[in-house]
Design a protein that fits this description.
Blueprint: H1 5-60, H2 65-82, E1 85-90, E2 95-99, H3 107-115, H4 128-131, E3 138-142, E4 155-165, E5 171-182, H5 183-234, H6 249-298, H7 306-335, E6 342-346, H8 347-357, H9 359-364, E7 368-373, E8 379-383, H10 384-400, E9 407-415, E10 418-425, H11 459-469, E11 474-479, E12 483-492
Parallel strand pairs: 7-9
Antiparallel strand pairs: 1-2, 1-5, 3-4, 4-5, 6-8, 8-12, 9-10, 10-12, 11-12
């Protein structure tokens, strides 16, 4: 499992959980020790204050057996609740009362009694500090200067001074109440809490791992589908599609993958069509050239006809040359290698020059060309050479599909801050189902591979790419038997 990406993620997740809980556990262990000890000290101090109040009542009513019994039971209850030995000591260290509570009838209690000298604490340090009365209570951790040494465990002792008002109205210390509890008993609380924490961590980690594993499966399944589909597409099965309907990032990835598959399938179809078209466009003139040359070399073609056939060969070579040049130009445009040389120029003047260049084939078909310019001079900002190629290709295309004595109209006008150039003809028109495909390389609307056999089928593809490089639009409107109209836009020159 851990060889997969999700296995590694689960491993990292478990490691992070372990590190996080370990740090939390260590901090909890140390901070909890101080917290529990501080809470115990506060509780013992409050218990000492409470004992002092009952001690005062007891001293004021020593002859009252009921008060004495209540005082003893109160100390016994406090001893049991605080798990402490309670001492009541006067200012000379003499023990007036001792309650062992949970330690009663133990060897430990007996050993403590044996250490008391005539009912008095054996070491002055055990009571002198508290008798000074400078503090509200005195805290001592350890063996209380040897008193608890035999237990071999540290003790916490809180010494709460008992104060009274003397006859001279001066507050005096008459003794103290001691609460002694073993520190391991305090630390046992910390250990218990830590055990519960560790148990909770183990349960939380187990549940988290299960949930992560379940959710990882939900993520890994569609990713495996994407991986398998990618493998099939890499093998050439471009028809493969993913059926993942989730609305999260995985669903978006699947949608993008399907779009990529469609693009690859279209690209593959274009590649095959391109190879087929190039093969056809190259095979036809090369077959003609080879046939004519073989006829001349074999003597099949008489010498007086050879110049005519050599002219045909020259025309076919020129056609091949145009095809190769158009392919190279188109490849440069699609790869972004062409750098536009933008400048301001008169688009109307450029159209006039293009018509002059095509005058020979226009007159050959006796086509009427009408120009309609909204203004005599209209300046645009573009690459003049590239736009000249656009106009020549569109006009040449119109001439090709317009019959004898047909009509071509060229107009320019301003609209929405742009210059519009429209080239229309009354030729054979284009079927609506073919309009979207006329921009493809080698596509020819007539099924006989083109009325004009000299065409390469790349003219409109070049037009589209040039205008795309200029970030301009071109649209086409056509009706079978009535003609076709191409309209493209250009940016206006600065100051126009």
């Amino acid at each position: 499992m851990f060889k997969t990406i999700f296995g590694r993620l689960i491993s990292i997740f478990i490691l992070i959980l372990f590190i996080g809980f370990s740090i939390t556990g260590v901090m909890l262990y140390y901070f909890l020790s101080d917290f529990v000890l501080d809470e115990k000290i506060e509780m013992l101090e409050q218990s000492g204050e409470f004992s002092n109040q009952f001690l005062k009542i007891y001293l004021e009513n020593q002859n009252n057996a009921f008060v004495k019994l209540g005082f003893e039971q109160t100390l016994e209850t406090l001893s049991a609740n605080t798990n402490s030995i309670i001492w009541i000591v006067n200012y000379e260290g003499t023990i007036g009362f001792i309650e062992f509570g949970p330690f009663k009838n133990t060897k430990f209690a007996a050993s403590i009694k044996n250490k008391l000298i005539y009912g008095k604490l054996p070491d002055e340090r055990q009571y002198k500090e508290v008798m000074n009365g400078n503090k509200s209570f005195v805290e001592e951790r350890g063996d209380l200067y040897g008193l608890f040494k035999d237990t071999q465990i540290p003790w916490l002792t809180i010494q709460k001074p008992f104060k009274y008002i003397g006859e001279d109205n001066v507050e005096k210390v008459g003794g103290a109440v001691y609460f002694s509890t073993p520190i391991p008993e305090v630390q046992r609380v910390r250990t218990t809490v830590l055990k519960f924490f560790i148990f909770s961590v183990l349960v939380a980690t187990g549940v988290s791992v299960i949930l992560v594993y379940v959710f990882s499966l939900r993520i890994s399944r569609p990713l495996k589908q994407i991986k398998n589909a990618a493998r099939l597409i890499a093998g050439g099965e471009f028809q493969k599609r993913l059926d993942i309907k989730s609305r999260d990032e995985i669903g978006e990835l699947a949608q993008s993958f399907n779009q990529m598959a469609v693009a690859l399938e279209n690209l593959e179809e274009m590649r095959r069509g391109f190879i087929a078209n190039v093969s056809h466009e190259l095979r036809t003139p090369m077959t003609s050239i080879r046939g004519f040359i073989d006829g001349i070399l074999d003597g099949v073609i008489p010498p007086d006809r050879q110049p005519d056939y050599l002219k045909v060969v020259r025309d076919e070579i020129s056609r091949l040359n145009r095809l190769v040049n158009d392919l190279l130009d188109l490849a440069k445009m699609e790869s972004g290698e062409v750098v536009l040389n933008l400048s301001d120029f008169n688009i109307n003047e450029l159209i006039r020059r293009c018509i002059i260049k095509l005058e020979a084939i226009i007159e050959q078909k006796r086509i009427l060309v009408e120009a309609s310019f909204e203004e005599e001079d209209m300046y645009v900002n573009a690459d003049a050479d590239a736009i000249e190629r656009v106009i020549i290709n569109l006009v040449h295309n119109a001439i090709k599909f317009t019959g004898e004595e047909g009509k071509i109209s060229i107009s320019t006008y301003w609209q929405k801050g742009k210059a519009f150039i429209e080239i229309s003809d009354n030729g054979i028109g284009i079927d609506n189902g073919e309009i979207a495909m006329i921009w493809d390389r080698f596509y020819k609307s007539d099924k006989s591979r083109g009325i004009d056999k000299s065409g390469t089928g790349l003219g409109l593809a070049i037009v589209k790419n040039i205008l795309n490089e200029h970030n301009q639009q071109i649209r086409v409107e056509s009706e079978i038997g009535k003609g076709t109209s191409f309209t493209f836009t250009l940016n206006t020159a600065e100051g126009s």
